[in-house]
């Protein structure tokens, strides 16, 4: 029996593995169903894929990267950073590629795992599959004759040069790949259900001299990280006090006005909700691409496919050679929740019934020795996922090292208190008052994604381990 098994070798799983080794826990494995590490930065290879968090912030605090070549790093550079960091911290021997979790059952004293590589048993199970993993593919009636794929499963064997391409969705991924497609396709039809706020992106190439400075004087990069952190926290004030977002909205409107000459198109692209209610998007090239003569924006959902035709809900009908979905991910409907079962045989998905709940977004009543990374109600619109992850890992490592031979199960009362107070605090934030429909809300209408307070509060809350909030029992002898 192993001490710990981690599911997923993305940023979360690798971070957990590094922290386990640093704590002296070495009897663990990281199961990754793919053949390489990287998580979302392995899967998303669409043209223009990049981070929308500043590079200096988008890294482990203990492993800064002085060699980022852009202020907002691209996909391949982030994936390489994760690979290099895993190697540098001795994680590679723990990685088991091509091993998929099929089922996990709590036996009363351990987790019994069924995997594609055979059975495993572990005292502690850590899920690190992330909310940006499983693509969301809307069910659209009819069939389409040509290639159809999701942005996170980009089919690089399909040449789009000179083709008529339909894009469904205008979220974070579409904002990045549409400008890359526009110059090479014959025509581009963008189906937009909701106009999005798009802000200018302060991206730039990082000169060799600046990178040398960061390598030679690490404090320089720490100062940059601190400045970017402060800037993001100032933006976070607007999430908690939506009236402040009017200032940022003015910048968004100016960006739109400067980028799109046509008043008619500007009207179609002007959002009707408060900025921050949905994920904030940044791009310097998205609006100019939509204003190009070979691009048409259709402000409607897609109702059906019919051979080579894409039919909008408003009756629009266009001919296309290929369809690309930019429709995001199953953020709250996590597939792994259906694989994890408590002692009564009830799955985590059945326990949640469509509305994920966890104490500090990490542990769930009824599921002992289970820790979920980047779990429910931990998402913010203004900080790095690495910051959230590291706060969770501090909590988990305290639990594991202070009670190394014990079974820990969060009590119902602390979990209920966290969920209730979090949702109550969310009511006055832009996520709830901004007049939008977003992926932050689960099928029951609850906001199961966002955290309503500042990043310092999040870190202080998550890193605090309170033993009385857990039922702690010794592990029975095997």
TrEMBL record:
Signal peptide: none annotated. It holds the Pfam family Pyr_redox_3. InterPro entries: FAD-bind_Monooxygenase_sf, FAD/NAD-bd_sf. This is Cation diffusion facilitator CzcD-associated flavoprotein CzcO. It comes from Kribbella sandramycini.
């Amino acid at each position: 029996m192993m001490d710990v098994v981690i599911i997923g070798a993305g940023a979360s799983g690798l971070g957990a593995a590094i922290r386990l080794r640093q704590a002296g826990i070495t009897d663990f494995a990281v199961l990754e169903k793919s053949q390489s590490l990287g998580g979302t930065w392995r899967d998303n290879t669409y043209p223009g894929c990049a981070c929308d968090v500043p590079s200096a912030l988008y890294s482990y605090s203990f492993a800064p990267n002085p060699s980022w070549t852009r202020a907002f790093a691209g996909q391949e550079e982030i994936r390489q950073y994760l690979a290099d960091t895993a190697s540098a911290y001795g994680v590679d021997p723990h990685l088991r590629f091509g091993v998929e979790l099929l089922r996990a059952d709590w036996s009363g004293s351990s987790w019994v795992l069924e995997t594609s590589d055979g059975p495993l048993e572990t005292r502690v199970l850590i899920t690190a599959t992330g909310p940006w993993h499983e693509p969301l593919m809307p069910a659209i009636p009819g069939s389409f004759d040509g290639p159809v794929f999701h942005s996170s499963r980009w089919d690089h064997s399909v040449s789009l040069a000179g083709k008529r391409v339909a894009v469904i969705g205008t979220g974070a991924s579409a904002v990045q790949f549409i400008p890359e497609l526009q110059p090479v396709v014959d025509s581009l039809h963008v189906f937009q259900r909701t106009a999005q706020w798009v802000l200018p992106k302060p991206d730039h190439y990082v000169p060799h001299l600046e990178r040398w400075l960061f390598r030679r004087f690490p404090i320089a990069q720490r100062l940059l990280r601190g400045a970017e952190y402060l800037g993001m926290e100032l933006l976070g004030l607007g999430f908690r006090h939506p009236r402040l977002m009017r200032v940022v909205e003015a910048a968004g409107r100016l960006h739109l006005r400067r980028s799109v000459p046509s008043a008619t198109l500007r009207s179609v692209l002007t959002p009707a909700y408060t900025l921050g209610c949905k994920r904030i998007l940044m791009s310097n090239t998205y609006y100019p691409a939509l204003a190009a003569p070979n691009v048409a924006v259709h402000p409607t959902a897609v109702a059906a496919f019919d051979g080579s035709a894409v039919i909008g809900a408003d009756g629009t009908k266009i001919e296309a050679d290929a369809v690309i979905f930019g429709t995001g991910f199953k953020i709250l409907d996590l597939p792994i929740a259906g694989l994890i079962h408590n002692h009564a045989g009830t799955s985590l998905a059945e326990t949640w019934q469509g509305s994920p709940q966890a104490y500090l977004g990490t542990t769930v009543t009824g599921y002992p020795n289970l820790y979920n990374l980047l779990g429910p109600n931990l998402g913010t619109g203004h900080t790095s996922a690495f910051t959230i992850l590291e706060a969770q890992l501090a909590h988990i490592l305290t639990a594991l090292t202070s009670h190394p031979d014990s079974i820990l199960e969060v009590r119902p009362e602390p979990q209920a208190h966290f969920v209730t107070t979090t949702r109550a605090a969310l009511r006055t934030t832009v996520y709830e008052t901004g007049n939008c429909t977003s992926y932050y809300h689960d099928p029951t209408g609850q906001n199961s994604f966002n955290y309503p307070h500042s990043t310092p509060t999040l870190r202080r809350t998550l890193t605090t381990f309170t033993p009385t909030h857990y039922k702690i029992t010794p592990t029975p002898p095997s």
